[in-house]
């Protein structure tokens, strides 16, 4: 533990629980809404079927915008004020979305939610790093990641239960309640971890300098772009999953269960990645995973075309689970590779890498989702094209 912080500290278990919930708020805010997209579209008279996907895309746009602001802000004001500001903005966005009489206002609320929730997402890792170092920090993060993996699997079920009991607006009420609980919990039980003498004045020059350095560094830029491409394919899946499973495959209320099964493959990859990295190295895993996604997409396209542009559900599930296992491996390594040359600007560098890759993935994921045409072909083609482009970018990034 850092010797500079000898004041009262919550227990290890309480600290891990608080940090885990702060990080998990992002995944919950995205995935719990998925079962409600059809009802939202019906209640708010959304004309184009694919426009419901913007409920997902807008929160990612907010994340892209907020990360690059709240990370540096926490270095200037301290960790807790930055998280307070983010959670406050998140509550405001949730209330606006909950009361929205029109779809456009709901989307504004989702944008504010994304900007707000980017604060705990960007600042929580710094909170852990302030308090723990070395193996102790690794131990904390292993517990945090376990919760972070479980939440996307369970969040659609939470949304489905609330939807059945109280309607889709109540889901936003759950978000507000959870954010307020976390705000009070953080305020009462967790002391500030960044002392005044270690704070850095907030300034646009630091952000611009970090952006310039990333753009000039082939490895940092290459893996930031790769992270954006791969995440774009995954966001495309999130955008269209409700339509694919609930409407195309007519699974109805079984959607959360099927979504959890697919999400488990990403979680399994995240858990296995630490062992695989020690054996094979990050770069080899990235190249092999991208190649596997391309091959799997080609096989899926061939089967779909042979069966009249239709993939039977068991085959589609198998394809998704294998592909997203590879995506889980990529998630564990791409940001680390992008950050390798940026150790001297780790804090601001991570914020900029996260912001740039999220902004790129939001645009690409929206494009993939908006291409949904009642079949799985746009999603499969999206994975194929974006993974193929990623292979080319990785080759460029690693060229001497």
Short description:
With 400 residues, the chain is mostly helical.
Measured by DSSP, the beta-strand proportion falls in under 5%
By CATH, the superfamily of the largest domain comes out as: MFS general substrate transporter like domains
Which architecture of the largest domain would the CATH scheme give at its second level?
Up-down Bundle
Largest sheet, if any? none
Q: How many helices?
A: 14
What does the overall shape look like?
Answer: globular
Structural class: mainly alpha
Instruction: Measure the end-to-end span.
Output: 41 Å
Q: What does this protein structure show overall?
A:
The protein is mainly alpha-helical and 400 residues long. It folds into two domains: 8-202, Growth Hormone, Chain: A (Up-down Bundle), CATH 1.20.1250.20; 203-400, Up-down Bundle (Growth Hormone, Chain: A). 81% of the residues lie in helices and 0% in strands. The protein is built from 14 helices and no strands. Helix 10 (255-280) packs across helix 12. It is globular, with a radius of gyration of 21 Å. The model is unreliable at 1-5 (pLDDT under 50).
Please name the defining characteristics of this protein.
14 helices, 400 residues, Growth Hormone, Chain: A, globular, disordered N terminus
What's the structural blueprint in terms of helices and strands?
Layout: H1 12-31, H2 37-43, H3 54-77, H4 79-99, H5 103-131, H6 134-166, H7 169-189, H8 204-216, H9 218-248, H10 255-280, H11 282-306, H12 313-339, H13 346-370, H14 377-398
Helix pairs in contact: 1-5, 1-6, 1-7, 3-4, 3-5, 3-13, 4-5, 4-7, 6-10, 8-13, 9-12, 9-13, 9-14, 10-11, 10-12, 11-12, 11-14
């Amino acid at each position: 533990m850092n010797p500079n912080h000898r004041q009262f500290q919550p227990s290890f278990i309480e600290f891990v629980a608080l940090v885990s919930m702060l990080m998990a708020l992002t995944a919950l805010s995205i995935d719990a809404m998925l079962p409600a997209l059809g009802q939202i579209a019906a209640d708010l008279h959304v004309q184009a079927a694919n426009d419901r996907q913007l409920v997902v895309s807008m929160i990612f746009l907010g994340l892209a915008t907020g990360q690059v602001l709240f990370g540096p802000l926490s270095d200037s004001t301290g960790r807790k004020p930055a998280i307070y500001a983010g959670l406050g903005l998140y509550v405001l966005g949730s209330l606006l979305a909950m009361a929205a009489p029109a779809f456009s206002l709901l989307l504004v609320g989702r944008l504010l939610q994304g900007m707000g929730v980017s604060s705990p997402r960007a600042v929580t890792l710094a909170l852990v790093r302030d308090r723990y170092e070395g193996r102790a920090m690794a131990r904390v993060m292993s517990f945090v990641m376990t919760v972070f993996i479980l939440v996307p699997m369970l969040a659609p079920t939470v949304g489905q239960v609330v939807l059945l009991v109280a309607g889709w607006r109540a889901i936003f009420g759950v978000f507000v309640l959870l954010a307020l609980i976390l705000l009070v919990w953080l305020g009462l039980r967790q002391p500030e971890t960044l002392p005044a003498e270690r704070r850095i004045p907030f300034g646009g020059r630091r952000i611009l300098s970090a952006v310039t350095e990333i753009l000039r560094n082939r490895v940092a830029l290459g893996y930031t772009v790769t992270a954006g491409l791969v995440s774009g394919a995954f966001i495309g899946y999130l955008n269209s999953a409700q339509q694919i499973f609930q409407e195309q495959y007519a699974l109805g209320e079984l959607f959360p269960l099927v979504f959890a099964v697919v999400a488990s493959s990403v979680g399994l990859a995240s858990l296995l990645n630490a062992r695989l990295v020690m054996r094979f190295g990050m770069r080899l895993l990235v190249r092999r995973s991208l190649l596997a996604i391309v091959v799997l997409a080609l096989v899926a396209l061939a089967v779909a075309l042979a069966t009249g542009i239709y993939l039977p559900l068991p085959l589609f599930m198998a394809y998704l689970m294998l592909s997203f296992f590879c995506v889980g491996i990529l998630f564990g390594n791409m940001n680390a590779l992008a950050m390798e040359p940026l150790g001297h600007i780790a804090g601001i560098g991570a914020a900029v890498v996260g912001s740039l890759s999220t902004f790129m993935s939001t645009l690409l994921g929206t494009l993939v989702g908006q291409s949904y045409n009642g079949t799985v072909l746009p999603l499969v083609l999206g994975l194929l094209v974006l993974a193929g482009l990623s292979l080319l970018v990785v080759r460029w990034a690693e060229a001497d």
